[in-house]
Structures are given as C-alpha cells and as structure tokens.
Amino acid sequence: MRKRIVIIGGDGFCGWPTALRLSKLGHEITIVDNLSRRAIDAELGARSLTPIRSLSERIDAWFDVTGHYIRPERIDVAREYDALCDLLAEIRPHALVHFGEQRAAPYSMKDAAHKRYTVDNNIRATHNILVALTHLGLDTHLVHLGTMGVYGYDDAGIEIPEGYLPVFVADGEGGLHQRQILYPAAPGSVYHMTKVMDQRMFAYYAKNDRLRITDLHQGIVWGTQTDETRLDERLINRFDYDGDYGTVLNRFLMQAATGHPLTVHGTGGQTRAFINIHDTVNCITLAVAHPPEPGDRVKILNQMTETHRVRDLARLVAELTGVEVALVPNPRNEAAENDLFVSNKTFLDLGLHPITLREGLMRETVEIAERYIDRVLPETVPARSTWTAAQAPGEVSEAALSRARRLEPAS
User: Fold this and answer.
1) Which of 31, 39, 137 minimizes the C-alpha distance to 75?
2) C-alpha distance from residue 357 to each of 84, 159, 241, 273, 364 (Å)
3) 151 near 185, Cβ under 8 Å?
4) What is the DSSP letter of 188?
5) Phi and psi of 180, rounded to 5°?
6) Dihedral sign of CA atoms 226, 230, 231, 234 in order
C-alpha cells in the first residue's frame, strides 16, 4: 500500500537514505527538518567529509534521477508545535519516522550548555510528536530511532532481550508473580539519558492513548552510501569523522585513508553493537511495514547485526590499510572492558539479511575517504569532549603509540 510518511530529521545521516528508500518504494514522503545538524557543523568548525548539497538541491536531484518527489518542510519540532500540528493535520500520515533528535553522545557532554540543549531539544521534540498525534486523533504508526546505549554496557552475563525483561516479584506470602518490565536502563551520557526518557513517554502514550509505536534500539552505524545515494553525486550521504559526531568505525576508516593513527580510547576493550547504513535503512523499512496494533505495548527491536571490541576493529582496519594504532586517553566515563550479547531475532525473522564487516564494504568507505581527502580538517579529528574533569581528551601522543605497540600480538 502506498503510504503517506513523514520523516522528521530526514536531512541527516540516517534520515536522508531512509527517505530515499521509502520514496523509491512508492510512498509519499515529506521531510521535516530544521537543518540543525548543518548548523552544528558550523558551530564545531567541522563538516561532512563528503560534500553535502542543500536539501532543496538533494530533492531536485532525486526527482531528476527517479521522477519521485519528496516534499520538504522546515519546522523545528521541539519549538514549533503549532506548525507541526498543522502539517500532521493536513497530511494525516500513515507513518511518522522520528530521527529529529541531537544524536551524538560526545556533543551532549561538551559542557552545561550542550547538556541542556540536548535534553531540551530531544525531550520536547519527542513529546510534541506524541501530543500532536494524540490531540489530532491520528492512527499514525510512530517509528523512533533509539539507541542500544539505553541498555548500558555492564557485563550482565545474559543476552540483552528486545526491550523487555521477564522478572519474578515476591509477594508478602512467599508467592512469585511473573511480570515483564522494560530492560533496566543504564545510560552512559546525557544523550543516552534522553533516549531512556523517550522510552518512558512511549510506554505511557501507548498505554493511555493506544498510540502505535516502534522503538528501534540501534547500534553504531558504519558505512556511508546506500543503493539510492549512489545514483547521483548530488545525493551522497554524510560522512562524519570529527571527535563529536564521527562514529568509531567510520573514524578509523577515514584515519586510515589519511595516514592518521587509529585513535582507540583507553584499552579498546569496549564491546559495541554495529550495523551498516544499508541495514539501518532496511530495518526501518521493515519496521514501517510491520506496525503494532492499537493498544499493543511499544514494539522494541534491537537494530544491530554484530558486536565487536573496539581494539579488534582497529586491528582489522590496521591490517587492511597498514596504518598504526594509538591507545589514547578515554574521554568517556565508562568501563574499560565489557562483553555484549544482544538479541536481534525479530528483524532476522522479518527477513533481514545482515551485512557484516566484509573487507569489500570497508574498502568502499576507505575509497570514499580517499576521494574527498582534500576536505579533511585534521584539527577536528581528536575526541576532546570529556565526560568528567577526571577524563582527558583522546589525542595522539608518542606514549599512546607506544601503548598500542606493546599490545600488538606477536607475529
């Protein structure tokens, strides 16, 4: 069925390729964006490694290539509630995909102003959407891009389920009663904390107002291009590599392309969940196609395909490219080592065929970095946003290189 779909944050790293995919499938797409991600680039003195055209140029290019039109609307969802309401009342979307939150943990921890901005923007945006859908009485399926970070990275010793944990509660007479609760949250940054707060709001509005909601707990995204963004240079996706917005594997691949040492924080023993940008788009497409019923609890799906230790990823990239590894100070307040076991059964059952870390796709990302190497701003590479006064920026030094050499496996 051709659906009317609103994509909030559709100019961003995950939102733009998602908008193209859903448009290609024949859906009627409206992008709502306040272009804040572009403004943050200017604030940080950073930019996408790939040259990003204006949103209007991107949309024109998509129409030129495919004949599909995407409608753009510039609305700040966190602050322009009336404009959001008017748009939703006009479109009456079948689905609304919500990417419209500040997405970087380091950016959320820079200082008091950035912590306050992240909470103010993210919580208000999500709640405004929920209130608008409720107020207008719309039967719209809300698909939200969350994060695996809501679970935290403690060694629980169990496979993390998809959102809900069965527990037994003792009563005063020695009896046990089974319940299902949201998996206990353990956010590691102010950004992750806002996603935990999203969860609680979703649970309330699904129960009280019978909203149909899917919350996708996504791993770290790597890669840049999808089938759609490759169709024309003007459609190219973002490639963030700076210390605030660059995801770890993309940062490694860019560093490798430029000959910069791979900056591994601490011991690199942090285990994280990963997903390729292709699979991000595939998962969101599957989620849109399989909404919960009105009155169902929030459908929570783990949107990831594999887990890796950061130092193992660095070794993989170093072997692929010959670039040296540096064990730099960890600017984050987190466990030095952890294991991570995650269920992604629902997406596999729905037909997802995961893309894993094959050399070919990593090489493609390196080739993109090499193509645009003249756009690299070296001063933006180090991760300088620290979680507390006890942390230090993740900057390369001779000591950092020496630590990495001592940990290299014997040949």
Assistant:
1) 31
2) 39, 21, 19, 12, 12
3) yes
4) S
5) -115, 125
6) positive
Write the secondary structure of 39-100 as one string of H (helix), E (strand) and C (coil): HHHHHHCCCCCCCCCCHHHHHHHHHHHHCCCEEEECCCCCCCHHHHHHHHHHHCCCEEEECC
Whole-angstrom distance between the N-terminal and C-terminal Cα of the chain? 57
**236 pLDDT exceeds 70?**
yes
pLDDT tens-place string over residues 127-150: 999 999 999 999 999 999 999 999
C-beta of residue 147 within 8 angstroms of C-beta of residue 188: no
For the CA atoms of the chain, what is the radius of gyration?
21
Q: How confident is the model at residue 411 (pLDDT cuts 50, 70, 90)?
A: very low
Mean of the per-residue pLDDT values of the chain? 94
Distance CA 263, CA 395 (A): 8
How many whole angstroms separate alpha carbon 102 and alpha carbon 125?
10
Report d(CA 224, CA 232) in Å as an integer: 14
- The β-bridge partners of 262 are 325
**Is the per-residue pLDDT at 404 higher than 90?**
no
Pairing state between β 28-32 and 4-8: parallel
Q: Strand (E) positions, 106-192?
A: 141-147, 164-170, 176-182
| Predicted local distance difference test score (pLDDT) of residue 371 | 94
Tokens, residue 201: 């709001």
Q: Which two tokens stand for residue 331?
A: 């600017």
Nearest-angstrom CA–CA distance, 376 and 239: 11
pTM across the whole model: 0.95
Rounded CA separation 190/13 (Å): 20
Nearest to 104 by CA among 11, 192, 16: 192
38, 32 Cβ separation under 8 angstroms: no
Using the CB atoms, write b or e for 23-41: b if 16+ within 10 Å.
bbeebbbbbbbbebbbebb
* Catalytic positions, written as ranges: 147, 191, 195
